Amino acid sequence: MSTEALVQLCVVRIGRESYALDLKRIDEILPVPGLTPLPRAPKFLEGVVRLRGDVLPVVDARKRLQVESTAGQAVTPSGKPRRTERMMVCRVGRRRIGVLVDAVTSVRRVPKTALRPAPLATPHVLGVTGEGDAVTLLLDVKALLTEDAG
Length: 150
Known about the structure:
By secondary structure, the protein is mainly β. It has helices at residues 61-65, 141-145; strands spanning 6-14, 17-22, 26-31, 45-51, 54-60, 86-92, 95-101, 103-111, 116-117, 125-129, 136-139.
């Protein structure tokens, strides 16, 4: 039995790419609620949502990463669009934010030693995990909220 430290990652789809976030950073995953838009807000800030007494800013990860949404492109056996889009409630320091993604695909347990720094200076990517074609980018949630991060 291995005593190697494991990290649990929540794998999500944003556009056509897979990204992962540390599961410890995620409070909950919800269907996308009704959002209240904010006038003159950055384009990636979809608005705010009231959740259990708190008002949370909601960032659209697709707009932030400048990728096209693939949510709703999957279909049910009856041919109806499948609603896969989700809002992840994440902790950034003492704040909580909503992050819109196309789909939550899995939770993986990976050895801490399998996490590598990002190969290039990319504002929204902390690092990578995996090998070959199965590389998953580790998303920097804090950078999604910073207006000058990309």
